[in-house]
Amino acid sequence: LSRLRSRLFFSIPAAGVVMVLSMVPWPGHVPPAWVGWLMLALATPVQFWAGGSFYAQAWAAARHGTTNMSTLIAFGTSAAFFYSLVALLFPTAIAPEGHAPLYFDTSAAIIALILLGRTLEARAKGQASQAIRRLVGLRPRTARVVRDGTEVDLPIDDVQVGDVVVVRPGEKIPVDGEVLDGASAVDESMVTGESIPVEKHPGDLVIGATLNRTGTFRFRATRVGKETMLAQIIRLVEEAQARKAPIQHLADVVASYFVPAVIAIALLTFLGWYAFGSAYVPAGQTRFTFALLLFVAVVIIACPCSLGLATPTAILVGTGKGAELGILIRGGEALQIAERLDAVILDKTGTLTRGEPWVTDIIPAGGVDSTELLRLAASVERGSEHPLGEAVVREAQAQGLALAPAQEFEALAGRGVRARVEERTLWLGSPRLLAERGLDLGPLQDAVQRLTEAGKTPLCVADESRALGVLAVADTLKPGAAEAVARLRQMGLEVVLLTGDNRRTAGAVARELGIDRVLAEVLPGEKAEEVRRLQAEGKRVAMVGDGINDAPALAAADIGIAIGTGTDVAIESSDITLVRGDVRSIADAIALSRATMRTIRQNLFWSFFYNSALIPLAAGALYPSFGILLNPMFAAAAMAFSSVSVVLNSLRLRRFRA
Fold first, then answer.
1. Which phi and psi (to 5°) does residue 162 adopt?
2. How do residues 374-428 score in pLDDT, each as one tens digit?
3. Residues sharing a CB contact under 8 Å with residue 398, sequence separation 6 or more, in sequence order
4. pLDDT digits (tens, 9 = 90+) for 473-492
5. Does residue 463 share a domain with residue 367?
6. Measuring CA to CA, which residue among 238, 252, 230, 245 is closest to residue 71?
7. Is the pTM of this model over 0.70?
């Protein structure tokens, strides 16, 4: 961008001076001799320094036996420049009266205006990656690391995995890690888009480059350097900007045919007017100069520069907007395929659900208070490391209950646990455990049956004499899961639930979400086969998952969408990553893809239509009847305006709302 700017900042004033000199009403309409030489002095660096890249790109294409947009630019401006050079050095060879018009202003203005369009393209690229640049700027330079019991400040690149890092209020977290001790609220908005600070306690993960708000804590570095989440985000966006969509290949193919056709039309225009246009040559010009003027006009107005801007600007702005929304899109191919999806396969655990068990129901027996039931159950499970027991304790802590100490704790493999709490022996586990103790569930049996059919796990609580109640534990749906499925269905997509869980649990989740097609008890290797089976039905399929077991299916799908809170393997196997872990972003990603591809088609259509429609005018088709000509300089201005319009149309994607 800086090189483009330096060339643009030189060529704009230089071209402006040349244009002013060409438009000054000199006495007798003949400028002094020094004017032509000054125009040559200004136009030459514009032509060969500012516009040098066009020659290099045209030559590279010619060596491969093809043409591109730079071919047309170099061809057209060279025609105007070298015609003017000959007219300046040998005026009588062009005009018998010796006052040949000069078109240095045309070549200089064309290059300046095209550079303006390309600079705007580069600016669009910069604006598209603005969110990522902000993330790069957030990376702190140093970290406070504990070495040999002493806190020392080290350069960020010297932090190693396993180092203990200390972070105080108001400081940026240097690398990714796991909290060891202390507590705080961390602002993760620049990475996840979550505006509310996230509470952090021992065992929680922290993300490098995020801001520590309140407390002091220590954490163990788990990912440093290029392995941090920040580095992964940057790499994904860079890959997205480097990839080329199939529709962009189409634009290149169109240009490769379009350029030779335009050059052929321009040559025919020149030959036609030179051979048969004597009666229409304006005063003061020869057949040659008039034919050359129209030749240059055709070459310039047909320049498909805006065709070259149509796809990259839209992709750059679209992927940049996705980054702002927490949607990382690997490239243009993902954008194109996501727009044409027919079906979305959703993994259950960790994608639609939270990925860990939570207490959903507390059903006490007669004469037992629900709060007391939860307190007793959590007191029994206080020392348990089982996920279901941890869910019970977590619920009691969330309700602020004071737990009693448990004694004689015993884990009963596959059935539950037993402990003495407040001089009472309590059992907590499956209905089978109570049956072994000879305890009847009584009226609670219906509740157990209902909970089981709903895909929940019933935990029965009993003392020595009777059943005290039932707690239900389940992997609950994420907030917004039902809304996400509804939005996908509204977009005309078939939604499929794919899970390794049992059919009963999968069916319960599907019913709650309104999903008709369920594939349950599917092994990791079989998930990819299920994806291919849907593809064999002629469907374009997206797979959404978060775990290592989803990686094969993510890779097999037309589009793999990874939940950003999932595993690195899943993320690396995907085409799109939802940084926030919000399943509602699936519909947002598809909607953004559709908006981006719609913009690309608009850009391609209007660029092609514009270039094609003005060719007859530039060739002088209206001149015999109406006296209308398209001067090469105005053709260049109109062409550059087309390029700017394409860029501005692409930038409208920045206003995309999920």
1. 100, -15
2. 999 999 988 776 778 888 999 999 999 999 998 988 877 667 889 999 889 999 9
3. none
4. 888 888 899 999 999 999 99
5. yes
6. 252
7. no
Q: Say which residue, 35 or 232, is predicted with more confidence.
A: 35
Q: What is the pLDDT of residues 230-240, one digit of tens each?
A: 787 667 556 54
The residue among 591, 624, 653 that closes a domain is 591
Name the DSSP class of 427: E
- The pLDDT-based confidence of 458 (bands split at 50, 70, 90) is very high
Q: Is residue 246 exposed (0-12), middle (13-18) or buried (19+ Cβ within 10 Å)?
A: exposed
Domain hosting 424: range is 357-476
Domain edge (last residue) among 172, 193, 223: 223
CA–CA gap between residue 179 and residue 200 (Å, rounded): 7
Give the domain CATH number at 341.
3.40.50.1000
- CATH code of the domain in which 195 resides: 2.70.150.10
Let me know if residue 482 belongs to a domain: yes
Beta-carbon neighbour count of residue 157 at 10 Å?
11
Residue 272 pLDDT: 94
Greater pLDDT, 322 or 300: 322
Token digits of residue 534: 């849907």
CB of 287 closer than 8 Å to CB of 276: no
Distance between CA atoms of residues 214 and 72, nearest Å:
61
CB 42 within 8 A of CB 17: yes
Catalytic residue numbers, as ranges:
347
Q: Are both 399 and 546 inside the same structural domain? A: no
Residue 490 resides in a domain: yes
Look at residue 572 and tell me if it is in a domain.
yes
Rg of the chain over Cα atoms, rounded to whole angstroms, equals 35
Give, in order, the Cα–Cα distances in Å from 533 to each of 377, 536, 549.
46, 5, 18
CB-based burial of residue 141 (10 Å sphere; 0-12 exposed, 13-18 middle, 19+ buried)? exposed
Give the single-character DSSP code of 249: H
pLDDT of res. 47: 94
Number of structural domains in the chain: 3
Instruction: Please report the pLDDT score of residue 195 as a whole number.
Output: 42
Tell me if 319 is assigned to some domain: no
| pLDDT at residue number 44 | 95
Task: List CB contacts of 49: < 8 A, sequence separation 6 or more.
Answer: 7, 10
Cα 502 from Cα 639, distance rounded (Å): 62
Give backbone dihedrals phi and psi of 299, rounded to 5 degrees, phi first.
-60, -40
